[in-house]
Write a structure and sequence with these properties.
Largest sheet of chain B: 5 strands, mixed, barrel
Structural class of chain A: alpha/beta
CATH class of chain B: Alpha Beta
CATH topology of the largest domain in chain A: 60s Ribosomal Protein L30, Chain: A
Radius of gyration of chain B: 16 Å
Number of strands of chain A: 10
Strand content of chain A: 25-35%
Order of helices and strands of chain A: EHHHEEHEEHEHEHHEEE
Distance between the termini of chain A: 14 Å
Number of domains of chain A: 2
Strand order of the largest sheet of chain B: 2-3-4-5-7
Number of helices of chain A: 8
Helix content of chain A: 25-40%
CATH topology of chain B: fumarase
CATH architecture of the largest domain in chain A: 2-Layer Sandwich
Structural class of chain B: alpha/beta
Number of strands of chain B: 7
CATH superfamily of chain B: Fe-S hydro-lyase, tartrate dehydratase beta-type, catalytic domain
Shape of chain B: globular
Strand content of chain B: 25-35%
Largest interface: A-B, 47 and 46 residues
Order of helices and strands of chain B: EHEHEHEHEHEEH
Bound molecules: iron/sulfur cluster
CATH class of the largest domain in chain A: Alpha Beta
Oligomer: heterodimer
Chain lengths: 280, 185
């Protein structure tokens, strides 16, 4: 057994939320840089350059890339040989969020009761998914999810016979309906299979996988590539003002499902795709 | 991309008419912030026949809820929020002389009709370019609804605030025309 003090988790999470909000992750930055010259619309090119300028300025001044500093979504893997001390892990993660958002001058965008809509004033609670795994470490992967893009996400219970083509149509339809709203260029996370909730969870997880890193299975890689190509032919372009850079990347995750179903969730993220991973 | 036009705020009727979808502009002068909660209160005030807390005529509203300002800064990151959420709350403001709106994303048909009828333009600012946009804001003061925090109505003074005319006072809509051009490329 290895003992980990949850107090360490507070500090690490606080650092992570500040870092991802100030410094656009390198994978996103490089992808924006690489796609700029390939954009055929002049306005689109201009916008991609402005986004890089924005990222540089935010990083240099240590201010948020985007004012919607998001709701924190964390995927946490806890090794079965870890003994936690000093309190509850969930409380520690939320304490880290509270600390990071306060210290970092990040916007608090979470309301408590979704119908009464009173701001919790510290950006908690975070959405946390746990997984028990082998080993004696804790791995925290988290994102700060903006809602301009979250609101454009969709789910559908397809028929098994809809198959791969049905999935592709639904993803493209979702991006097309979203148009300019999710601040394109976007990153698209697709969850296929499982149950309604599982598909949504893996779609979110897909968004945390860095740009440039495909799925491990060849057939899924092909699907990711075909989706990216199809989306970039929709014409939406940067900020929806026309062009061929609508999506920077598409990540697909799959899970076994029931004989009678084919759940699909499309979770959209904007170019402010803020994500990081730490191992304790 | 067209040449950049420098535009002073508040907008005169003449300037509104001269702005065309696709124009790149740098805005300078005063504007007001307002998003979901502030719009709701403005409309409640109108419904109750109360005076509005800001001079609406010829003004521009920026749909934004900025991040908190760091010490020494005027404002935190301040990019646009998605405009469609304000669509149901916009017509009464256009009727009272609102001339400009800044946000991101499509508008409802009824808003576009209102813009044509009363003469107003809709600008898009680059969504997610919050740090860059904040650097063009030189003054900020709370005008109303302070209890709403980031959503309170602020008066901002901006210098060379970058935006694009997306829907003009004739109803030309860049989101619709441009997308078609690049389809299937
Ligand atoms: S969708 Fe993303 S980039 Fe756009 S405003 Fe929201 S968080 Fe910012």
């Amino acid at each position: 057994m290895r003992t980990i003090d949850v107090g360490d988790v507070i500090e690490i999470v606080a650092e992570m939320v500040k870092e991802i909000n100030y410094h656009l992750p390198e994978d996103v930055y490089h992808r924006l840089e690489a796609m700029g010259p390939l954009e055929s619309s002049l306005t689109g090119k201009h916008i991609l350059r402005e986004l890089l300028k924005n990222a540089d300025l935010a990083s240099q001044k240590e201010v948020p890339i985007c004012q919607d500093t998001g709701m924190v979504v964390a995927f946490v893997e806890v090794g079965q040989e870890v003994k936690l001390e000093g309190g509850l892990l969930t409380d520690a993660i939320n304490a880290g969020v509270r600390k990071g958002y306060e210290e970092g001058f990040l916007r608090k965008s979470v309301v408590g009761n979704p119908l009464e809509r009173v701001n919790t004033k510290d950006n908690t609670p975070a959405i946390i998914y746990y997984d028990l795994v082998e080993g004696d470490q804790i791995k925290i992967e988290l994102g700060a999810k903006g809602f301009g893009s979250e609101n454009m996400s969709r789910s559908k219970m397809l028929k098994p016979s809809d198959g791969r083509a049905g999935v592709i149509d639904f993803v493209k339809e979702t991006v097309s309906l979203a148009g300019p709203n999710p601040c394109p260029p976007i990153v698209v996370g697709v969850g296929i299979g499982g149950t309604l909730d599982k598909a949504a969870q893996i779609a979110k997880k897909a968004l945390l996988r860095p740009i440039g890193q495909h799925h491990s299975e060849a057939s899924v890689i092909l699907l990711e590539e075909e989706l990216l190509e199809g989306i970039n032919k929709l014409g939406i372009g940067p900020q929806g003002l026309g062009g061929n850079t609508t999506a920077l990347w598409v990540n697909v995750e799959m899970y076994p499902t029931h004989i009678a179903g084919l759940p699909v969730v499309v979770n959209i993220n904007c170019h402010a795709s803020r994500h990081a991973k730490r191992v304790i | 991309m067209s040449e950049i036009k420098r535009i002073n705020l508040p907008l005169t009727d003449e300037v509104v008419r001269s702005l065309k979808a696709g124009d790149n502009v740098l805005l300078s002068g005063e504007l007001y912030t307002g998003r979901d909660a502030a719009h709701k209160r403005l409309i409640e005030a109108i419904d109750a026949n109360q005076a509005l807390p800001l001079p609406i005529e010829h003004q521009t509203i920026y749909y934004v809820g900025p991040a908190p300002a760091k010490p020494g800064e005027v404002i935190g990151s301040a990019g646009p929020t998605t405009s469609y959420r304000m669509d149901d709350l916009t017509l009464p403001l256009l009727e009272r002389g609102l001339k400009g709106m800044i946000g991101k994303g499509e508008r409802a048909e009824k808003v576009i009709e209102g813009m044509k009828k009363y003469g107003a333009v809709y600008f898009a600012a680059i969504g997610g370019a919050g740090a860059l946009i904040a650097s063009t804001i030189i003054k900020k003061e709370v005008i109303a609804y302070e209890d709403l925090g980031a959503e309170a109505i602020h008066r901002l003074v901006v210098k060379d605030f970058p935006a694009i005319v997306v829907i003009d006072s004739e109803g030309n809509n860049l989101y619709r025309t441009e997308r078609e051009k690049y389809k299937g490329e």
